Amino acid sequence: MTVVPGTEFDFLHGQWEVAHRRLKTRLAGADDWQEFGGCVAVWPTLGGIGNVDDNLLALPEGDYRAMSVRSFDQRSGEWAIWWLDGRSPHGMDVPVVGRFEGGEGIFLAEDVFEGRPIKVRFRWRSMETPTPVWEQAFSADGGKSWEVNWTMTFRRTPDRHDCNNALT
Questions:
Q1: Does the CA dihedral 1-80-154-106 come out positive or negative?
Q2: Model confidence over 68-120: pLDDT tens digits?
Q3: How far apart are CA 143 and CA 138, in angstroms?
Q4: Which residues contact 117 (CB under 8 A, 6 or more apart)?
Q5: N or C: which end of the chain has fewer CB within 10 A?
Q6: Is the separation of the CB atoms in 123 and 104 below 8 Å?
Q7: Strand 116-125 versus strand 50-59 pairing type
Q8: Does pTM top 0.85 for this prediction?
Q9: What CATH architecture is 8-25+34-156?
């Protein structure tokens, strides 16, 4: 399937229920996975070369909101993705930047975790299926090894699905 550059995230537009799985302790060799639900609504912006999503994450310790902003640079052919967590509403994460190739999207950033420099990787896969998957991984050794610490599996819901009341 050929996809026009800048439209790679079109598969994500709409309403989704999300199954989250994340490591509670990161970069410590832990295996303390936590599973919880959520939902997300995604819509196009910037005339189709960007999109925004509104997330409701239903962690056991309490729900919170977050959002992603994505934009495509037509000159470089790369996407940038920013994450804003409602629990820290004035602190947007550094963007991960990358592209889609060979049926997956890989996006990277340099960041800091608990005071030490790390690499962050977002990976999108299975976009052509009814259950696309996103994963986040950290590397503390410059990208030689990666620890996947969060996955999200998406399942489309009707367009009139109300994310505000989906988890009540």
A1: positive
A2: 999 999 999 999 999 999 999 999 999 999 999 999 999 999 999 999 999 99
A3: 8
A4: 110, 111
A5: N
A6: yes
A7: unpaired
A8: yes
A9: Beta Barrel (2.40)
